[in-house]
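G., before I forget:
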Amino acid sequence: MKVFTWVCDGFNRHRSGFRTISTALWLTWVCGTGLSLSLSGCDTAKGIDYDGRRILVVDMHLHPGEWDAIPEDTRKFIGSRFPFPLSLNPKTTAEGILSAEGILSELDKARVSQAVLFAVYAPRTVGIATNERVIADTATAPDRLFGLASLRIDNFRTEKDAELQRLRTALANPSMIGIKLAHAHQHFRMDDPTYFGIYQVSSDLKKPVYLHTGSSPFPGTSSEAPYTDPTYLEPAVKAYPGAIFILGHLGYDFTDQQSGSLEACIRLAKTYSNVYLEPSALGSKGSDPTGENLKTAMQKIRDAGLVDRVIYGSDGPQSPGFVKDYLSRTVTAMKASGYTADEAQSVFSGNFARVFRVAPAK
Amino acid sequence: MLTAAVFALQAALEPATPIDPPAPTSQVEILPLRTDPVVLDQLAGGPAKGAWGVSVQAGYPWFSLRALVGVGHRLAPLLEVESALGRRFSFSAGLSLAWVDRPHVRLSGEVLLGWMLQEAELSKRGPSGELRLRLAFPVRWAVPYLVLGTRHALLPSRTQIIREAGTETQWSVRHEWTPWGSVGLGIRISQRIGLDVAADYGWVDAPASVAIPGVHLAFHFGGGR
C-alpha cells in the first residue's frame, strides 16, 4: 500500500516528464525492496514496543492443518476471509500459512517469539488437525512452538477410555502443554458429566484446558447456550479445582458481533482461581470492525482486576498478515484501556509462562 | 468585330514569349487529419471515426483483452475480456464516449454490460455491469492516465431442498460491488503501437472484503489512423 501511494504521488507531481516518473518508480522499487530486506533480514528482534518498553509476545492460539481435512463449507468460509486475489486460490494460500514453516513466517512478521498450535477433532465443522500433526509441527522449532492436544468425542460414549488414553499419550510428549476443546464445534454440552473425565486428565497431568466459548462463525456449529455460554461450565470448574480452564474468545458472540457471554467469563474468573481468559479472534477486522468491542472487553477485565488471568492469543493464522494485525489491534485496545507496560507484559507473555510453565524463548 | 477585339485583348495579355509557370506564392495543401496514437485512444477512450485498437494486458492479478473502434463523434463500441489469475473472468461489451478532447486532456466515460464467472473454491457467476471514467494527459510520447470505475455483479444462488413430498427450490440474489482505480503511464512507440504500465486497485466485494493492489503491463496496437 505504501508503494502504491508513492506511485500515485509520483504521477501527480511529475506528470509532465517520463524521465522523472521513471526515476520515481525505480526509487520506489529500490526503497521497497530495501525496506523488505531490512524488515525480514536485518532486524529480527522479537516483541512489541509498549510505552517504550520491549515486551515479548506469546500467541497461545494458532491453528495448523491441512486444507483437505477441512469440510467444504468451512473451506468456503475460510476462503472468503482471504484478501482478493488470494481468495481465488484458497488452498494454496491456506497451506502456505497452515504449515509449520508458514506459521513461523507469520510469527516472524509479527515478531512473536513463541506460539501454541491447536490439535482439533471437529470433522463436521472446522475439520481435523491431529495430535500427531501438531507434535510434528512443534518439532520444527521446539523452543518456539508448543501444542495443545485434543480428542474425538463423537464416539465418546463407547470409546471414552480409548480416547482418554490417546489424549494422555499425546500429552506425554513434552511439547504438548495442554488440552483443546470446542463444545460448539464438537457438539457436546459444557455441563455434560460424560466428558468430565477430560478435566480429570487435565488436573492429573497439570496441563491446562482451553475451551472455545461464545458462538462460532463456522458453518454447522452448535449455537445454543449449553455449547457456548461458559456459565454451563461452572460445575466442571468447581469439580476440578486442579484443572486450569482457559475461556477462549471471552464468550464473544461472533454471529451478532456482540460481547455475548463476556460477563459470565469475568464472573467465573473472579470466582474461581483456576479460570483464565483469552481474547482471541473477537477483535479482528471482520468480527469487530471498529475495535470497540475488544477495547470494551479489555477494559472490563482490567476493571475487574483480572489482568493476571489474561493470556494473549490471536486465533491465527487465518490469512497472511492476520497474526501481526491482530497483535496490533490488541495493543491498541489495551493502550486505550489504560494497561500499563507491566500489565501488558503479563498479558502477552508473563501469564502464559506462569500457567504453562514454559520458559521464554532465548 | 467583337471577335477580333477579344482575340486582340487575349493577345495583349499573353506574354510575348512562353515561360515556365511562376512559383506559387501561396498554396493550399490538403493533408489527412491528424489522428491520435493508439495508446491514447486505448487508455483514454473515445477514438476518432475509423480508428481501432486492441490492448493486451498482463499483470498481477489482472489480465485483459480490450478492443475499441471509433464510429464517429468520439463514440466507440468496445469489447473486453478480463481475468484474475485465470480463475475469475468477465466478458463485457459496451460503449466509450469522449466528453473532453483537447490536445493535452481527454476525458471519457464507458458503460459496459456482460457476464462474470468465478471458478474457485468460492464459485460465482452472474450478470455484471460497469461505469468507468478515463482521464489522460497526453504530452508528446507520454500518456499519464487515471481510470476510476464502479463494477457491479448480481450473483444468483439456488437452494434446493429435496423432501419426501417434493423438491423445493429457493432463489436468492447477492450484489457484489467492485470499486476500481488504476493509475499508470502510457508510452507512444508509434501511432499504431504503444505500451503502458500501471498500478490497479480492484476492491472485489467491497466493503466486506480486503483486496491487494495489482500491477500490469499492456501492449496496444491498432490501425485506421
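Chain B has two helices and ten strands. Strands of chain B lie at 52-60, 62-69, 75-84, 88-102, 105-118, 124-136, 142-163, 166-188, 193-202, 214-223.

More on Monday.
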